[in-house]
From TrEMBL, chain A:
Record's keyword annotation contains Repeat: yes
Record's signal peptide: none
Transmembrane region(s): none
SMART domains named in the record: BOP1NT, WD40
Role noted for this protein: Component of the PeBoW complex, which is required for maturation of 28S and 5.8S ribosomal RNAs and formation of the 60S ribosome.
Keyword check for rRNA processing: yes
Source organism of the structure: Oncorhynchus tshawytscha (Chinook salmon)
Domain BOP1 N-terminal: 74-332
Lineage of source species: Eukaryota, Metazoa, Chordata, Craniata, Vertebrata
Ranges occupied by WD repeats: 339-380, 645-677
Cellular-component GO terms for this entry: nucleoplasm; PeBoW complex; preribosome, large subunit precursor
Record InterPro entries: BOP1/Erb1 (IPR028598), BOP1_N_dom (IPR012953), WD40/YVTN_repeat-like_dom_sf (IPR015943), WD40_repeat_CS (IPR019775), WD40_repeat_dom_sf (IPR036322), WD40_rpt (IPR001680)
Protein name, per record: Ribosome biogenesis protein BOP1
Automatic annotation (TrEMBL), chain B:
Compartments reported by the entry: Nucleus, Nucleolus; Nucleus, Nucleoplasm
Protein name, per record: Ribosome biogenesis protein WDR12
Residue span, NLE domain: 5-70
Keywords in alphabetical order: Nucleus, Repeat, Ribosome biogenesis, rRNA processing, WD repeat
SMART domains tied to this protein: WD40 (SM00320)
Listed InterPro entries: NLE (IPR012972), WD40/YVTN_repeat-like_dom_sf (IPR015943), WD40_PAC1 (IPR020472), WD40_repeat_CS (IPR019775), WD40_repeat_dom_sf (IPR036322), WD40_rpt (IPR001680), WDR12/Ytm1 (IPR028599)
Length: 677, 407
């Protein structure tokens, strides 16, 4: 395409009075006659011209006056319009064909500046000035070469201060003093800011805001419904047997008919009997029509019309991956022995360090010693009160059992096991020499003699208050006793057997003490009050840690033989496992029991711990503690051991493990002790 | 499949039938098969009287119907089934009940006398008819084990081991009924739970009793004769980590011990070194050895009686588990004259008589005891004994089949 149309409806010559430069400026804005410019040289060059410039450059004025009409209208005429005088402008004779055009293009050096004027149908050769003008316009310059668009500006008024003012009026006073109105306005604004009525402008959000085009789209809307469409059940199309005149093979024989009549409606292959009629006219009204329509309606009404998207969660996936109890053998699984003999509930049990003997204390005022592997009661000792706690000395070189009842802690020598150990224990006790200066002690130590000595009594520690628990230190020389009392600091006492000394380690009362325990390896001391477990360093005499159990009332506590873990049982059915390196909050909270926990215990060698509760069951868990600090303990419940009968709403009162075998003892309110292996 | 081709055979010539295949119903049980054999024998020998038989298919006792048994054992029913039949071992008949004052911890009987140890700190000697002959009192604590050592005519030597860490050697004259404590063996640092005497006691002048063990110290002792009243161990076998629960002599050179540390060890009696260790998974309560079948039977705290081969190099292989008890097996004893039979006592108050060819069900359950069974024994004179925590020692008479004796 080599043509560009510059539209204009104005007749040519209406602005001919303008000077050339000014007029040629207006060409750019499209004011001009209807000119068709054909460029014939370069496809990028566009030719523009005006009739005015023509007029100046041409001697004869052959401007066409037909106006802005398509030149095709004059196709069939010899002329193409009228000049200013009203004479016809005749089309020049044009007999150039394509070849001539091509030759012209090749040979004519002015071909590129020749334009075809449609209105006069003549070829015009542009002058140099016109070509320059076109070039300038193409570059966006002014048409006039001489026009300077950057002429210096001339102010109306000077900006210099003159000697003489324009007016001689003195300045107003108000121009010197601050404006009262403004002051009021400012103070109002300040007040409003102070009162918070005016808030600083919110910073403009710079993040571009998008919105979800489809957010509000209802999935049940047409689009969604189409997706989830379930078509209504289709009716079966009638077959040959439904025909009024079925082929004879579809008609039932007499036998088939009888069978059909005897069958139940559901068993029938066809719900009707095919019948033959001679003509359609003879077909009677269908008696079951209403019935069948109704059933069809029911089908439509009851058929599922929507697909329900059900999230299929495999319940197996929700269970945490734990090793199977089978792989965690050995642990106690069955009840093997029942130790019968007590006549009241058995509060406390303890196994000897060799695992051959078991001691139990009961509310029937007796302490009994049992042979573990036969269930034989070897010895029965009467004491003067309901036995609250018994503890066998963990040191295998000492044969001593601590028993507490009422206000007394009794150290017994059961005379079981190695004779040498028994006698050396007696020597150890009798070898005591009283110190020179007698210090006032919280308890009175008394050596048993005579009949009591023969019964096994060795030392009697009379406390000022009722004792609830005794516990040995791992080395077997120290023992601690607990006297729960809410209003005194004299709740926990630590006794040294060899020196017969007693100390009260605490100056302040931090709450009702439930139980205490020694750290198995380091000089730490654990004190459990109702809700907290405090860990004291006995050498530095300071509080090291305070463990929050989240329990309402702690009942029992056990320290892992490694010393870095601790379990707490509570009366609100929970068992809290603490990792002392990890946190002061429970690492795991186990709620396996239905009722209050009464006793917890760790095994000395195997990764096992057990808890006994008022629901009569002992739950054994695998509690593996890794040496690697990065690995948390693995806790897997492995077995629920049942056997104890619930008596007076009390089930299992104490649990303890066999020191070497994966066996657990439990004592219950049903007066028995049971061994699970 | 309703019929099976079977061929019956037996070792006992008295009851042998023709070696021809019979077709019998697959659903037949022991009683029906027994009737078949009796019919055959009657046809052969008019004077035959009805005898109960037991049947073995490939060395396993038939306890269910024949087809079920073969399905369970994976025996093809296409071929002719070889069925061995033996005269049924008759149920042991209760003979005597000997009342003690306290729990019976151990029993050992020989052909004339029964020796029992009791928790009342005494041992007792009974005649086989259940008459109390002698009370051996001398220990200051519970008697845990007893053993006959030797008998020279009317004079017998016997041993009692006690919780008081001593073993007493007694000499008893049965005619004058005089008892004399000859030696006191000391050396244990715990209760002596078990003793065993050397099988060659009749030849060796310095009779060796192999002693044993404190549930706290891992060692065993062997003693020899000294002139004084007190004897010290000849040798201490150290190696067990926990209490040794049972010891016995395999022969005059080998000692076998079972312990709470889940191992059975075989020791060389000359050097005192461990020869083999058999490792189990549970605490062993008692072991017994049969020279007839050269197997060890162990009773452990997990309800099973296990059979071991002490000679095998890969020692921890259990040959067979006999499972029927519901409590700890506290005592096991091989039959003195039958290579397949053993008796076991358990905390579930039952004494069970086993045939190793039927490991799922015992031959007989003897439920005489009302409390824990703690010890069992056999004698050559067809007497089976069991004692327990109900203070009663029961004896039962059994009749060994002639063919089985010495088989």
């Amino acid at each position: 395409m080599g043509t560009v149309c510059v539209g204009g409806v104005y007749p040519a010559g209406c602005e001919k009075k303008r000077d050339t430069a000014a007029h040629s400026l207006l060409i750019g804005s499209g004011r001009g006659v209807f000119i068709e410019i054909t460029h014939r040289c370069s496809p990028t060059l566009k030719w523009l011209t005006t009739s005015e410039s023509f007029q100046l450059s041409r001697v004869c004025d052959i401007r066409n006056t037909v106006g802005n009409v398509p030149m095709e209208w004059y196709q069939d005429y010899p002329h193409i319009g009228y000049n200013l005088d009203g004479k016809k402008i005749f089309k020049p004779i044009r007999n150039k064909d394509e070849l001539d055009e091509f030759l012209d293009k090749m040979e004519n050096p002015d071909y590129w500046r020749t334009v075809h004027d449609k209105t006069t149908a003549s070829d015009i050769r542009l002058t140099d000035e016109q070509v320059d003008l076109v070039h300038r316009l193409q570059k966006g310059q002014f048409g006039d070469v001489n026009f300077n668009e950057y002429e210096p500006s001339v102010d109306f008024f000077t900006n210099e201060v003159m000697i003489h003012p324009v007016t001689n009026r003195p300045q107003d006073k108000r121009s010197f003093i601050p404006s009262l109105i403004e002051k009021e306005k400012v103070s109002k604004l300040v007040h409003a800011i102070k009162m918070g009525w005016i808030k600083p402008r919110k910073p403009k959000e710079t993040t571009p805001q998008y919105y979800d085009l489809w957010a509000k789209e209802d999935p049940n809307a047409i689009l969604g419904r189409h997706k989830m469409h379930v078509p209504a059940p289709k009716m079966r199309l009638p077959g040959h047997e439904e025909s009024y005149n079925p082929p004879p093979e579809y008609l039932l024989t007499e036998e088939e008919r009888l069978v059909w009549e005897q069958q139940d409606a559901e068993d029938r292959k066809l719900p009707f009997l095919p019948q033959k009629h001679s003509c359609l006219r003879a077909v009677p009204a269908f008696s079951r029509f209403i019935h069948e329509r109704f059933e069809r309606c029911l089908d439509l009404y009851l058929c599922p019309r929507q697909r329900k998207m059900r999230v299929n969660v495999n319940p197996e996936d929700l269970i945490p991956k734990l090793p199977k109890p089978k792989d965690l053998q050995p642990f106690p699984t069955t009840m093997s022995l029942v130790y019968r003999g007590h006549t009241s509930l058995v509060r406390s049990i303890s196994a000897s360090p060799t695992g051959q003997w078991l001691v139990s204390g009961s509310d029937d005022f007796t302490v009994r010693f049992w042979e573990v592997n036969t269930g034989r009661c070897m010895k029965t000792l009467e004491v003067g009160g309901a036995v609250k706690s018994v503890a066998w000395n963990p040191n295998p070189a000492v044969c001593l059992v601590a028993v507490c009842f009422e206000r007394t802690v009794l150290l017994l020598n059961p005379s079981l096991g190695d004779r040498l150990v028994v006698s050396s224990t007696d020597q150890l006790i009798t070898a005591y020499e009283p110190p020179e200066e007698d210090k006032e002690q919280a308890v009175t130590w008394a050596l048993s003699e005579g009949l009591e000595h023969n019964m096994g009594h060795r030392l009697t520690l009379t406390h000022p208050k009722a004792v609830k628990q005794v516990v040995w230190h791992g080395k077997g020389d120290y023992l601690s006793s607990v006297m729960p009392d809410n209003s005194s600091n004299l709740q926990v006492l630590i006794h040294q057997v060899s020196k017969r000394r007693t100390q009260n380690p605490f100056r302040k009362n931090k709450g009702l003490v439930q139980c205490v325990s020694f750290h198995p390896l380091r000089p730490y001391f654990f004190v459990a009050t109702q809700r907290y477990v405090r860990v004291y360093n006995l050498i530095k005499q300071e509080l090291t840690k305070k463990l929050m159990t989240n329990c309402k009332w702690i009942s029992s506590m056990a320290i892992h033989p490694g010393g870095d873990n601790l379990i707490c049982g509570s009366y609100d059915c929970r068992l809290a496992w603490f990792d002392l390196d990890l946190s002061t909050k429970p690492y795991k909270m186990l709620r396996h029991h239905k009722k209050a926990l009464r006793g917890v215990a760790y095994h000395r060698n195997y990764p096992l711990f057990a808890s006994g509760a008022d629901d009569g069951s002992v739950i054994v868990c695998h509690g593996m503690v890794y040496n690697d600090l990065l690995q948390n303990p693995l806790i897997v419940p492995v077995k629920v051991l049942k056997g104890h009968q619930i008596t007076h709403d009390l089930g299992v009162l104490d649990v303890t493990f066999h020191p070497t075998q994966p066996w657990v003892f439990s004592s219950g309110a049903d007066t028995t002790i049971r061994l699970f292996t | 499949m309703s019929q099976l081709q079977t061929r019956f055979f037996t070792d006992n010539k008295k009851y042998s039938v023709d070696d021809v295949p019979f077709s019998i119903p697959a659903a037949s049980e022991v009683q029906e098969l027994s009737n078949v054999i009796n019919k055959l024998l009657e046809a052969k020998n008019g004077s035959h009287s009805q005898i109960e038989f037991d049947f073995l298919v490939r060395g396993q006792f038939l306890r269910t119907s024949l087809s079920n048994h073969m399905e369970a054992e994976g025996i093809s029913t296409e071929d002719v089934v070889e069925i061995e039949y033996v005269e049924r071992f008759t149920a042991p008949q209760p003979e005597e009940c000997m009342m003690h004052d306290d729990w019976i911890s151990s029993v050992e009987a020989d052909s004339e006398w029964i020796l029992t140890g009791s928790y009342d700190k005494t041992a007792r000697i009974w005649s086989l008819e259940g008459k109390a002959v002698m009370t051996v009192a001398g220990h200051t604590d519970v008697v845990k084990d007893v053993a006959w050592v030797r008998r020279d005519g009317l004079t017998s030597l016997l041993l009692t081991a006690s919780l008081d860490q001593t073993i007493l050697l007694w000499e008893w004259n049965s005619e004058r009924n005089k008892l004399k404590a000859r030696h006191c063996c000391r050396g244990h640092a715990g209760s002596v739970d078990t003793i065993a005497t050397d099988p060659t006691r009749t030849k060796v002048t310095g009779e060796e009793e192999e002693v044993e063990e404190p549930p706290s110290r891992p060692r065993k002792k062997q003693k020899t004769e000294q002139l004084g009243l007190t004897r010290t161990p000849l040798m201490t076998l150290s190696g067990h980590n926990e209490a040794v629960s049972s010891v016995l002599w395999l022969d005059s050179e080998e000692i076998c011990s079972a312990s709470w540390d889940h191992t059975i060890r075989l020791w060389d009696a000359e050097t005192g070194s461990v020869k083999t260790t058999l490792t189990g998974s549970k605490v062993f309560n008692h072991i017994s050895y049969s020279p007839l079948c050269r197997r060890l039977a162990s009773g452990s705290t997990d309800r099973h009686v296990r059979l071991w081969d002490p000679r095998s190099k890969d020692g921890s292989l259990v040959l067979l588990s006999l499972t029927s008890h519901s409590g700890w097996v506290t005592a096991v004893k091989w039959a003195p004259s039958h290579e397949h039979q053993l008796v076991s006592g358990s905390l579930d108050n039952l004494v069970k008589l086993w045939d190793t060819r039927s490991c799922k069900t015992p031959l007989y359950d003897v439920s005489a005891h009302e409390d824990k069974v703690l010890c069992v024994d056999w004698t050559d004179s067809r007497l089976m004994l069991s004692g327990g925590a109900d203070n009663k020692l029961y004896t039962y008479r059994y009749t060994a089949c002639e063919t089985d004796a010495g088989a």
